[in-house]
Each structure stands twice: as structure tokens, then as C-alpha cells.
């Protein structure tokens, strides 16, 4: 059986221990992945520290040229990488292509680093004195990433970290680890020196070793909120800079003036795409006023049209969940919702796919008359379950969203500019779509939620990514004229 190794200092390194990697569409074990611990992390940090000495001295041109070459390889190998992702994650091949494209856009942003990394210069701030600033890399930085985007989420991190002169250690999800090694190979072919990009596989032991290693300067984390809080606490306690993005419960609000067919189409895709395993998935639809009955009827029809099957079968809209435990959790939640008084409009439980009877499949579920006390509303189910909450006004919808502990994404469907403006100004959420269901920002903006969806204060990629992976220096300069009078005051310096 194939074993997926660590990648340290430009070469594969086997793990002393391994864990199973499943094919979610069949339920069968398809590979083993190395499980790293302190020794593997230490080897990766040592390699990355050594590589940092030369990489941080390389020119901006050299670094961006590697990014241009890496981008080209991502284009050429998109199909191969998409199939690797689909085979381990279960999402459709087209959906995997989408995540590669969105990740590649961060590489494209990094290709333009020469512009965004420019410092500023102030001439003659005082007589004969100028000031300029510039930014320098931190050193060895680590990325700890979730299973749901095995290519895109790491790509939110490493292109910017590396292009700004850092060296990087990726600890990907142990559930779908192969994309990380594939990307490591592409970087090597793009001319990235050994030790600049490393992969240590594993779970908690590998994460803990990274959070406490004195050679790691910064940690980027994306995953569930409890682990984000833990990572933030541990890594800051060990003196590291941390960005930690957590879970979500994203609401779509539908006003009565919206085109309901359009809204339902987009909400269906936002709720059930990637089997609901997206941090920007729409898991709650708030139907305002008279929109409700008609909206639920269209959503019911569309949920029945969702084609569930293995991710590599043409025509599949939605694949299996990542594990058997995830499938059980989601199906139990649908049962609990019914017991707590929700109406199960579409019941996805117990779905069997011919030829894939042991796969981790569940069908789309649609729950109506959900209230904010119910578990189906309170928990991030991370599965294909859409909960409908009914309210009377837009302001009620906004209050409901604001009371939710998460604040990652939200979408408003309306024909009213006034309502859209009120919504975007008042809602306590980081990423907002107006008639756009999954408003993932472009790479030259930054990605990040509010409240429990982002711990600390660092969103990811775009300008915030540059800020996170570098620290600023400000230089105040005077070049005295020959024999200039050398008097120096004892008072605190002020400009004149
Ligand atoms: P997870 O929190 O279980 O795992 C994330 C990473 O943490 C993995 O690398 C995992 O190995 C590691 N980890 C898990 N348990 C740990 C522990 N006890 N100690 C230390 N490390 C541990 O998340 P997941 O199930 O892989 O991914 C799904 C979650 O990620 C969802 O909550 C989703 O909303 C969130 N997510 C958020 C964003 C965002 O941008 N906010 C993006 C994608 C996913």
C-alpha cells in the first residue's frame, strides 16, 4: 500500500508511524500517511532555518521568478492535482479544479510582490533628514491546515510566506495529505531551493511540536474554532505570531423582493456544494416575511435534483463526506432536529450509492422551521444540511446573525440597494455577498471572518498576508555635509 512521506529539505522522508487515508467514496483504506512527531518537526525546522540564511538574501526578482514558474506548473498539472484531491477528499474533480484556481490566484498575487512590497520614503522630514521603511521576512513559519481544501488553504499561506523571503513548514490534514507532497514536487521543479518548503504530516503531536518549537517564528492555522483557539493560545504563549481562522455558520438572507428562483439556485449550490464541507458553505437560510413558503418549495425541488455520487463520476454534483464519523454526525443531527421540532422537508439520511455501498455518503437535507435554540442551528454540522429560519424583517435577520458566535460569511438576496447597504454596514461578519452566495474574496483582498471565525486579528492572504509574514523597519537617515557643525541637543528629538 502507498505510504505518503514527509518532505524535508527537498526529499521524501518516511515516518516511523503511519495512519490510514481512506477513499471516502468506497470507505476503503487507500494509503498510509506518515505521522510526524517532535523529531520530524525538529528536522524540518533545522532544514528551514538553514535554507532561510540564503533564501532571505535572494533577490526579489529571483523569488518572484520561482513563483511565476510554480504558477505555470500548477496550470499544467491542474488535472492531476484535482484528481489527487478528489480521490482523498471525495469532492468532485471540477470542484477540486476550482480550489486549485482560487489557490493559484494567491500565487499570482505573490508574482506581483515587487509592487505590494514597496516601502515608502519621506524626504526632508527635518532639515537634512529623510525617513524610509521596508519589510523583512520573519524566518521559519508554519502552516497547519484543514481537510476541506487540501490545496487552496495551504496556498493561502505558502506563496506569500515564501515570496516574502521566509521558509515554510506545512502540516496538512492527515485525512487528505497527498496534495501537499505533490505541491512540494512542483516547487522543486520551479527552482525553489531545498528546505524552503517542507511538509510534516501528522496530527496533534506534529502540531504541538510546531507550536512549541523555538525555531518557528509564526503559525498560520485554518480549521475548527476549538483547535484555532488552542493553537492561538499555545503559539502566542511560546512567543509566536499567530493567525488562526476557525469554523463558521453562514447565513443567507432572502428578502421578499429577491428573485426567488435565482436565490434558491445559488443557496442550493452554496449549501450542498462540496457536501457542505466548506467554511463558506451556506448552512442557514433566513427567509424574511412572505418569501418563506415559496422559497422552501423551490429549495425542496432543487435539493432533490442534486446528483450525489463519487467525485470522479461525470455529472456528480456532490460527493461523500470525509469520514464515516462525519456521516454519522450529520445524520444524527438531522434526527435531532426532527426530534426538536424542525420539519424535515428533504431527508438525506441513509442514502446508498450503487457500487459504493460502504462510501461515506449522505444526501442533501433541508430542515424548515428551525429555531436558534436547536442544535442544527447552533452547531457547525459541516455537511449537506440547510436549515431554514423564518423571520419577519431584515432587521430581525441582522440581529439573528449578529447574535451567532460565528461571523465568517453571509449573503443577502434582494433587489433593494438600500437593504443591501443597511445589511453590509450592520452585520457583524467579515465576508459579505450581495446576491453572491459564497463571497470568497479575491487573492488581492484578504480572507477572514469575525468573532469565533477568526481568533486574534490577522486575516489571511492579500495585503494582510504580506503584513503577517513580514515585520517593518523604519530608517531615519542624515548624511551630514562635510564639517557640518556637530551640536546635539539633550532634549528628546523633535523635527524642525
Ligand atoms: P480541525 O480543526 O479538526 O483540523 C485542522 C488542523 O488541526 C489539521 O491539520 C489537524 O490535524 C489539526 N488538529 C486537529 N485536532 C487537533 C488537536 N487536538 N490539536 C492540535 N491540532 C489538531 O479541522 P478540519 O476538520 O480538518 O476542517 C474543518 C474545519 O475547518 C471546519 O470547522 C471549517 O469551518 C474550518 N475551516 C475554516 C476556514 C476559514 O477560513 N475560516 C477554512 C477552511 C476550513
CATH superfamily of the largest domain: Aldehyde Dehydrogenase, Chain A, domain 1
Radius of gyration: 25 Å
Ends distance: 74 Å
Strand content: 15-25%
The name CATH uses for the topology of the largest domain is Aldehyde Dehydrogenase, Chain A, domain 1
Q: Which bin fits the share of residues in helices?
A: 25-40%
Which CATH class of the largest domain is shown?
Alpha Beta
The number of domains is 2
Q: Summed up, what is this model?
A:
With 496 residues, the chain is an alpha/beta fold.
Descriptive account of the structure:
The protein is of the alpha/beta class. It folds into two domains: 267 residues, 3-Layer(aba) Sandwich (Aldehyde Dehydrogenase, Chain A, domain 1); 185 residues, Aldehyde Dehydrogenase, Chain A, domain 2, CATH 3.40.309.10. 39% of the residues lie in helices and 23% in strands. Strands 15-16-17-14-13-19-20 form a seven-stranded mixed sheet, with helices on both faces. It has a six-stranded mixed sheet with strand order 10-9-8-11-12-22, sandwiched between helices. Strands 1-5-4 form a three-stranded mixed sheet, with helices on one face. Strand 19, helix 15 and strand 20 form a beta-alpha-beta unit. Helix 4 packs parallel to helix 6. It starts with a strand and ends in an 18-residue tail after the last strand. The structure holds nicotinamide-adenine-dinucleotide (NAD). The site of nicotinamide-adenine-dinucleotide has 28 residues, from helix 8 and helix 9.
Amino acid at each position: 500500500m502507498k505510504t505518503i512521506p514527509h518532505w524535508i529539505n527537498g526529499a521524501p522522508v518516511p515516518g516511523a508511524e503511519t495512519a490510514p487515508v481512506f477513499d471516502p467514496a468506497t470507505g476503503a483504506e487507500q494509503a498510509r500517511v506518515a505521522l510526524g512527531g517532535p523529531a520530524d518537526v525538529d528536522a524540518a525546522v533545522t532544514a528551514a532555518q538553514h535554507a532561510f540564511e540564503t533564501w532571505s538574501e535572494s533577490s526579489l526578482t529571483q523569488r518572484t521568478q520561482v513563483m511565476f514558474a510554480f504558477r505555470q506548473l500548477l496550470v499544467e498539472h491542474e488535472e492531476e492535482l484535482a484528481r489527487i484531491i478528489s480521490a482523498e477528499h471525495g469532492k468532485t474533480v471540477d470542484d477540486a479544479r476550482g480550489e486549485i484556481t482560487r489557490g493559484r490566484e494567491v500565487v499570482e498575487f505573490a508574482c506581483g510582490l515587487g509592487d505590494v512590497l514597496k516601502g515608502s520614503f519621506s524626504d526632508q522630514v527635518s532639515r537634512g533628514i529623510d525617513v524610509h521603511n521596508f519589510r523583512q521576512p520573519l524566518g521559519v513559519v508554519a502552516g497547519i491546515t484543514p481537510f476541506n481544501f487540501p490545496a487552496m488553504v495551504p496556498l493561502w499561506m505558502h506563496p506569500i510566506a515564501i515570496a516574502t523571503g521566509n521558509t515554510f513548514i506545512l502540516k496538512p490534514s492527515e485525512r487528505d495529505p497527498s496534495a501537499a507532497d505533490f505541491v512540494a514536487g512542483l516547487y522543486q521543479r520551479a527552482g525553489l531551493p531545498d528546505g524552503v518548503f517542507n511538509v510534516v504530516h501528522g496530527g496533534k503531536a506534529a502540531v504541538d511540536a510546531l507550536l512549541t518549537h523555538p525555531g518557528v517564528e509564526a503559525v498560520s492555522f485554518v480549521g475548527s474554532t476549538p483547535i484555532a483557539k488552542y493553537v492561538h493560545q499555545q503559539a502566542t504563549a511560546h512567543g509566536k505570531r499567530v493567525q488562526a481562522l476557525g469554523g463558521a455558520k453562514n447565513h443567507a438572507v432572502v428578502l421578499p423582493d429577491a428573485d426567488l428562483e435565482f436565490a434558491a439556485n445559488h443557496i442550493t449550490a452554496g449549501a450542498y456544494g462540496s457536501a457542505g464541507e466548506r467554511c463558506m458553505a451556506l448552512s442557514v437560510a433566513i427567509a424574511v416575511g412572505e418569501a418563506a413558503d415559496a422559497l422552501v418549495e423551490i429549495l425542496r425541488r432543487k435539493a432533490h435534483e442534486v446528483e450525489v455520487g463519487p467525485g470522479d463520476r461525470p455529472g456528480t454534483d456532490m460527493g461523500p463526506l470525509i469520514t464515516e464519523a462525519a456521516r454519522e454526525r450529520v445524520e444524527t443531527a438531522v434526527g435531532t432536529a426532527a426530534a426538536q421540532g424542525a420539519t424535515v422537508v428533504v431527508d438525506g439520511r441513509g442514502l446508498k450509492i450503487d457500487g459504493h455501498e460502504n462510501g461515506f455518503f449522505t444526501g442533501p437535507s433541508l430542515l424548515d422551521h428551525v429555531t436558534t435554540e436547536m442544535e442544527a442551528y447552533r452547531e457547525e454540522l459541516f455537511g449537506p444540511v440547510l436549515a431554514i429560519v423564518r423571520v419577519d424583517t431584515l432587521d430581525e435577520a441582522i440581529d439573528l446573525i449578529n447574535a451567532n458566535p460565528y461571523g465568517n460569511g453571509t449573503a443577502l438576496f434582494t433587489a433593494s440597494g438600500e437593504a443591501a447597504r443597511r445589511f453590509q454596514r450592520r452585520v457583524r461578519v467579515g465576508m459579505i455577498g450581495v446576491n453572491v452566495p459564497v463571497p470568497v474574496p479575491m487573492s488581492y483582498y484578504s480572507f477572514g471572518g469575525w468573532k469565533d471565525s477568526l481568533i486574534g486579528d490577522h486575516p489571511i492572504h492579500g495585503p494582510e498576508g504580506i503584513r503577517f509574514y513580514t515585520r517593518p523597519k523604519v530608517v531615519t537617515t542624515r548624511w551630514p555635509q562635510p564639517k557640518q557643525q556637530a551640536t546635539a541637543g539633550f532634549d528628546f528629538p523633535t523635527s524642525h
